[in-house]
Specification:
The structure holds two protein chains of two kinds. Chain A is mainly β. Chain A has five helices and 46 strands. In chain A, the strands form twelve sheets. In chain A, strands 33, 34, 35, 36, 37 and 38 form a six-stranded antiparallel sheet that branches. Chain A has a four-stranded antiparallel sheet with strand order 1-28-27-26, with no helix packed on it. In chain A, a hairpin with a 6-residue loop joins β36 and β37. The radius of gyration of chain A is 28 Å and the shape is globular. Chain A starts with a helix and ends with a strand. Chain B has two domains: 88 residues; 71 residues, Arc Repressor Mutant, subunit A. Classes of the chains: A mainly beta, B mainly alpha.
Chain lengths: 646, 160
């Protein structure tokens, strides 16, 4: 709703004569994107009133209107229907049928082809459909002039969908392919390729489709490949590659066809000390090996983001390769549980890398070295991801009955909306790592754990802790979110519903939380590094909120102080207990007062608790890891020197 | 070929109609948000030039051009930081009350300024503003509220 008084004052600008810019717009050529980031030549419009009243804060303003790198000359917004979507996740609803094989984005629709029906089994299909996820429009496409198949490779050229190779229900492989033109709904067969039947690795260069090696484990590990030119329907053999791969990802960097992966000959046994990679230059028809990477030889997945290759191994170690310097740089670990299920997929949009692995979807912005877990991530354990222009489409299969659900993720222009880790400082006492921790209630303690637990995995995520002083606790726990602007996503309504004074007498805004109709309110504390929302339990400011003051300590931890003693809750789930997440290795730590018994939290396979602090006040629990490893970690971690909040 | 020419003419007419309906308001919104008339002019002209170039690929020209113009203007602001400021004149020829408004807007954060202008000058809803500036409706709600509150203080606006 417009504020009439402010509207009236802003209306002063209506007395400023607006220039007629139509002729300028209709006669100018729009700027082309600038490859080197240099500014395009400015064209000053004649007759325009020229003035500049205030100096804008450049960085902040840029963030205010979105975009990581756009300039005047960039493609500004809409190139496809998905470009109208808001940033973050958008639920696009169910798919008309579950895709099992080729799924490509054309810029305006998905083309789905092949595979073995909705469950992936049964006779292989040679037909498919086109689907506009925004409008829901679905168009069946005619059968291809080649056998139905699965595990084929595919590419979208901008005009045609290319299909080649694959198998019917296992080897032998196919050695033929076809091209589909959606504008005419017609197929054509591809000229015979000069390579043997297989499931190759592949990438589209913009003019050629490169097929090389093998994308599946086979006894015969081919090193040859070929390039297909759809304009002339011709193939040319390419030089033999220098390395054998069994599990690899191929990508086109703009100059080279790069293969990153593993050589796991003889089953899962790696033959190399690290992951391996090689690059093919079509301009010279030559290959080169990339330097050794920091990745485990069990490489998992990789993606070209537009300026670097981001690769992940099965241990969730990640690294970036810069072709300009021919060097690898280790990045922060991929968050989430390791599952080694071979399900990880990496995709890119707007320079961001997005990795989906065993239900965790993490992103890496263009200049970032640490991954962020996306908020409100769809339940996507077996998700498939498809690059779609400025977004990434994620297809989430149903857990039970029903259709796959389609989601789109569009990178944020405001990076403060991301959940990022930070690390309390730590030292070593020889065999153990020592990490002082200040808990959100002001209590302090020291975590000591074996040196072989990688301290880098001990990230402290947002929503780090929940505290309360009343019994029963309020419905919504206190939330600590990393990022000074992070409160916006939690709050509902157009404006605060009131203001209250905190314990120091400072006025704080009271906002609706948990949805506009929830009736629940929270007091917002915005700190430099954190946003803290403290629930009040209703429209009336409650004693819970008013008793708090919130500050940050030298370690950037939010520290809550209160007039009355508080205790850490032992509950989980909604209104959960205080916790420190531990990154990839372990699910979480739960801090409980007065419970020193070794006991399972839950009777499911992977949820166990253990250990207690030296003074008997804190129990460390964890879940989501295999039992033996959980117990090893638990018995190796000690919380010492606990000092309760004053 | 005839159909193609007719299509081009029709899209040109549609784009001009969009300009006639939105151009002035868009330009003034950019002036309020960025404080620079020349920048606003270039952003508006560029946005409509790109709209024309894209033809039927743009399904909602008005929404597209608002978003594009704000993004283009922000891009130019970014370039100023990299390559130095553009030559600009002072506000001498502006109405005094407009100068007051612009100076008050300049005190707001950039996020708040865009949000308040689009909400209280143009009258867009929070969801529409979120799409223009690339944010979420709840974030816009916070920016509008805080920006509006600060602007009222600076302009000494009081409810009767």
């Amino acid at each position: 709703m417009t504020d009439p008084k402010v509207h009236e004052r802003l209306g002063a600008v209506d007395r400023l004569p607006a220039p007629d810019l139509w002729v300028d717009a209709a006669t100018r050529m729009p700027h082309a994107p600038t490859a080197d980031g240099s500014p395009p030549t400015r064209r000053v419009t004649a007759g325009v009133v020229a003035f500049l009243v205030f100096a804008v804060a450049v960085t902040g303003l840029w963030q205010a209107v979105g975009g990581d790198e756009p300039s005047v000359g960039d493609e500004p917004v809409v190139t496809s229907s998905l470009d109208d979507l808001p940033e973050g996740w958008t639920d696009l609803g169910p798919m008309p049928a579950d895709p099992t094989d080729t799924t490509v984005w054309t810029g305006s629709e998905l083309i789905v082809w092949g595979g073995g029906g909705e469950d992936g089994g049964g006779p292989m299909r040679a037909d498919g459909f086109r689907f506009d996820p925004v409008t829901g429009a679905t168009i069946s496409i005619v059968e291809a002039p080649i056998d139905g198949r699965g595990n084929e490779v595919s590419a979208w050229t901008g005009q045609e969908l290319l299909i080649w190779g694959g198998w019917s229900e296992g080897p032998p492989f196919f050695d033929d392919g076809a091209a589909y033109d959606p504008t005419t709904d017609t197929w054509r067969t591809l000229a015979p390729a000069p390579i043997s039947a297989r499931v190759p690795l592949s990438a589209w260069t913009g003019t050629e489709w490169l097929l090389w090696g093998t994308g599946v484990r086979v006894d015969d590990r081919p090193l040859d490949g070929a390039a297909y030119d759809p304009a002339t329907d011709t193939w040319r053999p390419i030089a033999e590659g220098p390395l054998e791969f069994t599990d690899a990802t191929a990508m086109w960097t703009g100059e080279e066809f790069v293969v990153v992966g593993a050589a796991l000959h003889g089953g899962n046994f790696p033959e190399t000390p690290t992951a391996i990679a090689a690059a093919y230059d079509p301009a010279t028809d030559t290959w080169r090996e990339l330097p050794p990477s920091p990745l485990d030889p069990n490489s998992n997945t990789a993606v070209w983001t537009g300026h670097r290759i981001v690769a992940v191994d099965y241990g969730h170690v990640t690294a970036a390769y810069d072709p300009a310097t021919d060097t690898w740089t280790e990045l922060g670990p991929l968050p989430g549980q390791q599952c080694e299920g071979g399900l990880a997929q990496a995709r890119a949009a707007q320079g961001w890398a997005l990795v989906s692995d065993c239900g965790t979807i993490a992103v890496l912005p263009p200049a970032a070295t640490e991954w962020s877990v996306l908020e409100a991530t769809p339940d996507a354990y077996y998700a498939r991801a498809v690059p779609a222009g400025d977004s990434v489409i994620v297809l989430v299969p149903p857990l039970g009955e029903g259709r796959s659900t389609l989601w789109a993720f569009r990178p944020y222009s405001d990076l403060s909306r991301l959940v990022t880790r930070f690390f309390p400082s730590s030292t070593s006492d020889g065999s153990r790592t020592v990490m002082p921790v200040t808990f959100p209630d002001g209590a302090t303690a020291t975590l000591r754990f074996p040196y072989y637990f990688e301290v880098d995995t001990f990230g402290v995520y947002p929503e780090v802790s929940w505290l309360w002083s009343v019994d029963p606790p309020p419905r919504y726990a206190i939330e600590f979110v990393h990022g000074a602007k992070a409160s916006a996503g939690m709050l509902a309504g157009d404006a605060p519903v009131g203001e209250v004074d905190d314990a120091t007498g400072t006025s704080r805004e009271l906002w609706l939380i948990g949805g506009a109709d929830s009736g629940d309110t929270g007091v917002v504390f915005e700190l430099p590094e954190w946003t803290v929302v403290i629930p009040t339990g209703g429209f009336e400011p409650g004693a819970v909120a008013l008793a708090f003051t919130v500050t940050q300590d030298a370690n950037r931890f939010p520290v809550v102080t209160a007039e009355a003693p508080f205790e850490l809750s032992k509950e989980t789930g909604e209104g959960a207990s205080a916790r420190l997440t531990m990154g990839a290795a372990v699910g979480a730590l739960i801090l409980e007062p007065g419970n020193c018994e070794l006991r399972p939290i839950d009777r499911t396979e992977h949820e166990y608790a253990a250990n207690c602090a030296a003074d008997g006040r804190i129990t460390v629990s964890m879940w989501g890891v295999p039992t033996d490893y959980a117990l090893e970690v638990v018995t190796g971690i000690h919380i010492e020197d606990f000092v309760p909040a004053a | 070929m005839i159909a193609s020419v007719e299509g081009t003419v029709g899209r040109h007419a549609e784009a001009e109609a969009t300009y006639r309906e939105h151009g002035s308001r868009l330009w003034r919104s950019l002036v309020l948000s960025f404080g620079d008339a020349e920048l606003a002019s270039d952003a508006v002209a560029e946005a409509f030039a790109q709209l024309l170039a894209r033809g039927s690929a743009v399904r909602d020209p008005a929404a597209w051009v608002w978003r594009s113009a704000f993004k283009i203007a922000a891009g130019q602001i970014k370039e100023r930081a990299m390559f130095g400021p553009m030559a600009s004149e002072g506000p001498a020829e502006l109405p005094v009350d407009l100068v007051d408004v612009l100076r008050a807007l300049g005190v707001l954060t950039p996020e708040q300024r865009c949000a308040v202008v689009l909400a209280d000058y143009v009258g867009y809803r929070h969801a529409e503003i979120a799409r223009i500036v690339g944010s979420t409706p709840s974030a816009i709600a916070v920016r509008v509220h805080r920006g509006r509150k600060r602007l009222r203080e600076l302009l000494e606006v009081h409810d009767d």
